[in-house]
Amino acid sequence: MELWIDYECPRCNITIQRNLRELAPEQNRQCPECNVRAVLTEEGLRGLERSLRDLPAS
User: Fold this and answer.
1) Full DSSP string of 1-58
2) pLDDT per residue over 9-29, tens digit each?
3) Among residues 5, 13, 21, 46, which is most buried (max CB within 10 A)?
């Protein structure tokens, strides 16, 4: 199962989904539209939390 986290561009207000497997510390998370640094929002973290809860128990 793939896990995604949403970032938001403070300039464009678009949501940018990133696969958790692709994230690394200090990795650039720029908006593809305006190149402003995207930010992790509280809603993005809530979405990740929901996805984690939906994972099947192993």
Assistant:
1) ---EEEEE-TTT--EEEEEGGG--TT---B-TTT-PBPEE-HHHHHHHHHHHHTSPP-
2) 999 999 999 888 877 766 778
3) 5
